[in-house]
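Researcher: Re-running this chain for the archive, since the previous output was lost when a drive failed. Same request as before.
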Amino acid sequence: MRLPEARKSGAVSLEEALNRRRSIRSYSSEPVTLEELSQLLWAAQGITGKNGFRAAPSAGATYPLETYVIIGDVVGLEPGFYRYEPANHSLALLKKGDMRPVILDATLSQPCIKSAAVILVFTAVYERTTERYGDRGKMYVHMDVGFAAENALLQVAALSLASVPVGAFRTKTLGNLLGLPESELPMCLLPIGRP
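Model: Regenerated structure tokens:
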């Protein structure tokens, strides 16, 4: 499914987004729009330049991250588990149904997981980077996750949404519940909703 085209300019300055960004763990029941979801994914891992360069930097442009979305409540999009495909700014449905209750135990029953309209899931395929950089590549992968997550968090602030980075989860259990390949490790979750 193609996403709406992402905006390349907005009403909120970078400085204002930085000032607004806070970790917020409680969300209203109001849905997120498809346009907002599109903007969030573009900010995190969208294509912004020639040769497939993305919004978030990556060591040697190896792009070890995969970005998935757990949809709970997005206007015009059925609940499910989707993979973001940056090359054509689209979503591929992997599993139908609301995955928030399914992953709740693996995420230590955090209320922000249960109430988020959307959860971005960043996973890493270490070999994409370690093939080039050896063991040091592991550190680069962790940096890449931070870059992508911060881009998304600043976009959350600019859209007047709310989020919190979540690293407390059972990695293997979460990967199994989502049906991820063994070569992909969940690294960070960003539950997102309206404050």
